[in-house]
Here is the input.
Amino acid sequence: MKIHHLNCGSFCAIGHPILNRLLPKLDQFNLVCHCLLIESSDGLILVDTGLGLKDISNQERFKSNFIFNQFARPKLDVEETAYMQIIRKGFNPKDVRHIIATHFDSDHIGGIADFPDAIVHVLKDEWDAAHNPVSPKEKLRYSPSRWQMNTFFETYSTQGDSWNGLGKVQKLKGISEPIYMVSLPGHTRGHSGILIEDGKNTLFTGDSFLLEAQLLKKPYAVAVNLYNQLTHDNPTKAEETLNKIRVIHTQDRDLLILSSHDPVLFRRSLEQEETEK
Ligand SMILES: [Zn+2]
Here is the structure.
């Protein structure tokens, strides 16, 4: 198994011009959409897709998502799509057999339509939230056009606490490698992390935290809390989940914990990948 780190969408969170005038330092948050491309015995596996070709060619797709459009200011560069990066790495996009989605926000599954033959794996709670949104935030965040081109989905329930106090899917259909989904609710109803146990283990936590400083409980801009309040479906549950991740981090320092949008964690992962070549 080999893990490639891809940035499939640069954007400037909390980059709204009015906020930047009030709090000029906010413009420094140039964030990424960190995705994983895994070479495995089960073919190519993507963990999230970031933004896709249709997001770039039809920028109207973001018009309905006020929070994302106003506060994220996506760069929308076709060269950042997973599809184009996979080709640049010398692979065939048709060889992407599986996509494991942390959740169904547009910045995480914008590119799944670029891989229509892949099986999309998602927790059942997230599937239900996306198809039957209940809260005002759920009604705002999901865009069925993102996944309507795909036909192969597998959904999973997580029962009990089977990994460090978190629900874990023991077996992903069609994937024999030690890759698991773990329930990390809060950001969305069925938000999940992806656990890769390949010796130097990795926990990809999606949007459970924005910046590493939150994980380490180091000082960070108050604007990050504002961002969390705006984007977490259930901020209280998200904080409970983050506290569990913090405990795991203190108990297992060898576990590499990643998040979707932290540019520093992404750069560090990329440097590590370069040294392992
Ligand atoms: Zn996100």
In short: Residues 105, 107-108, 207, 260-261 surround zinc ion (CB under 6 Å).
